[in-house]
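re: ur question from earlier - yeah i can do the single chain one, its not a big deal. heres the input i used so u can compare w yours
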Amino acid sequence: MKKVLGIVLGGGAGTRLYPLTKLRAKPAVPLAGKYRLIDIPISNCINSDIYKIYVLTQFNSASLNRHLNRSYVFSGFRDGFVEVLAAQQTKDNPGWFQGTADAVRQYLSLLQDWDVDQYIILSGDHLYRMDYAKFIQHHRDTNADITLSVVPIDDKRASSFGLMKIDNEGRIIDFSEKPKGEDLKKMEVDTTVLGLTPEEAQKNPFIASMGIYVFNKQVLIDLLEKDPNQTDFGKEVIPGSAEEYKLQAYLYQGYWEDIGTIEAFYHANLALTQQPNPAFSFYDDKAPIYTRGRHLPPTKMVNCTITESMISEGCILKESKIHHSILGIRSRVETDCSIEDTMIMGADLYESSEERSLLKAKGGIPIGIGSGSTIRRAIVDKNARIGNNVLIVNKDRIEESNREDEGFYIRSGIVVVLKNSTIPDNTVI
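and the output i got, formated as tokens:
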């Protein structure tokens, strides 16, 4: 894999994940209590022996850059790096990235200087574990110009994805973006060609793109230079190349989830707490998910009842009940709290006992969850200050609401408490 360069698309403004992307780039959004979304594709690269990795982004990239610099420092004996390429204005490109393909195009002069045979292009907001080496080997074995990683899906979900048709050799011959009705019916394929059993193929007669691509080096260069007006890989560049180039499908059958919306992000995180076997597990010593080593102390729990939950390191929890929840690093929960179906992202720092006492004496609220508070079906972003006897339960069953001035949003019925926000004592949401 020394002849492969990894390119992770950091995404645009992350509007579907707002307000989690208000102060950070989408790939920097915390995941599973101690990771960030960007750790998934980078860990997959490292586990696949791909060590030259660029991350393209343009919005709120400071925390992402800091995380990558602190997390991924390779040995001097290995020709590897993880580096952010942020949108920049040049004489030839005076504007922002206009899409996934345009982002790569604006850095093409840098990318083509590398002595590689293939580029693997990845997304920064998916949760999955994949051996890219097998993906790239399939690309080479089939003499493809471009290979797309695809997942088999059923007719209930098919209309939400970009679909493809393949011939008997797995070559892609047609595309359709989120088809419905008769157009959807036309996109049915025999997925046994890709290795599914007849029973599996009958249940999943469609194939959808994962947004993961392998390009031969010169093919990508030629396509991006050919038409500067084509700004998106999935909608323009790849469908437009089907007649001239050989496009191949690679079937991925493991767990894969697009977590680019608040609802999907929330459910994917809480699904990690399932027992005994969650759909995706971080407990795999053969293909670990890497992140920044923080050297935090063990979590301290005083007379707590904790069920079906994941508690990260460095937390302090006192006499509370926590069920089906994830608590991020440095989370602090005071006495007599009830937390259920909730993701708490934790904190970036500790406040000493003296600081907390002084803050309370001045009428302020320390970082963490105050005594007597109840939180259900919520996401609490980092460094949030939740007062005493706060009730966050979406009591009116509101689906969507923008209450930024009060420190929270509601998305798909999920209360999202903003990063660094303060929720006063006795507040009811």
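The chain has a mean pLDDT of 92. not sure if urs matches, ping me
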